[in-house]
Specification:
L-fuculose-1-phosphate Aldolase, 39% helix, single chain, alpha+beta, 2 domains, binds Dihydroxyacetone, binds zinc ion
Length: 263
């Protein structure tokens, strides 16, 4: 149960940061067969779920996915009703091995999560995790800042020294779109070819990575930069981080920063 406990702890932290009110947010985490065997019987699927899009790249993979309509607030006290562990059986079918005990099903954003896993695994074989949440200051920023991905990234990089070190590839931003649908899922996954983070205007963020710490840290750092922006955006700025200082940082910390933003 250790893996599940680690995931639940992160879900609880996300809730305590006020980034997952009510049933807001969802999470999916690729598990190894060994991790799943520690938790449940992998030979007796309980139910199946069908999807129209093609997920053949994920066949055989095990995924923990938060349940639809479920509250992050409740995962700690009741994981078996709020989370599910599934296996990708074929290009269109997930089978449930554990969880959703009250008859539930995967989050409405499951197709977006699965498409993001497919794209991230192509660029990072160690990729495992997708978290969607509603961080307050990131949402605030999408009301008052340009939604151009490069301009959004430049502002976040210039808010604090650690931004360019933590997300050197930048942040992609999507305009407002209907959530839970195919169009936003495809647009998000398309950006995942070269970003780990995609902001949904007036909604929240999708962040991806190898570990719970990496992805939680990414969300924290982006949200912190957005918080600083929201605190100073209507103040008279008398000094800021300069382009050449960002380049100096990237060189010192040996990160490849996205070109075309500050140079
Ligand atoms: O699952 O956050 O985007 C609730 C949401 C949908
Ligand atoms: Zn959401």
């Amino acid at each position: 149960m250790n893996t599940i406990q680690d995931v639940i702890q992160i879900i609880d932290l996300l809730y305590k940061h006020n980034w997952d009110e009510r049933n807001g947010g969802n999470l999916s985490y690729l598990l190894s067969e060994e991790e799943v065997k520690d938790i449940c019987d992998i030979h007796h699927p309980l139910r199946t779920f069908s999807y129209s899009f093609d997920m053949k790249e994920l066949i055989g993979k095990y995924i923990l996915i938060t349940g639809t309509g479920k509250y992050f607030k409740n995962c700690l006290k009741d994981p078996k009703n709020n989370l599910g562990i599934l296996r990708v059986e074929d290009a269109h079918t997930l089978s449930l091995l554990w969880g959703y005990e009250d008859g539930g099903s995967p989050t409405s954003e499951a197709p977006t999560h699965l498409k993001c896993h497919i794209e991230r695994l192509k660029v990072d074989p160690l990729h495992r995790l997708v978290i969607h949440c509603h961080p307050t200051n990131i949402i605030c920023m999408t009301h008052i800042h340009s939604l151009d991905s490069n301009r959004f990234t430049e502002t976040l990089w210039k808010m604090q020294t650690e931004s360019i070190v933590v997300f050197p590839e930048g942040i992609a931003v999507l305009p407002w779109m209907l959530c839970g649908g195919e169009e936003i899922g495809d647009a998000t996954a398309a950006h995942m070819k070269d970003y780990r983070s995609v902001v949904w205007a007036q909604h929240g963020i999708f962040c991806t990575g190898k570990t719970l710490d990496e992805v939680f840290g990414l969300i924290e750092t982006i949200e912190k930069a957005a918080e600083i922006y929201m605190k100073i955006c209507d103040k008279k700025i008398i000094q800021s981080i300069k382009n050449e200082e960002l380049i100096q940082l990237a060189t010192a910390f040996k990160v490849e920063y996205r070109k075309g933003i500050i140079d």
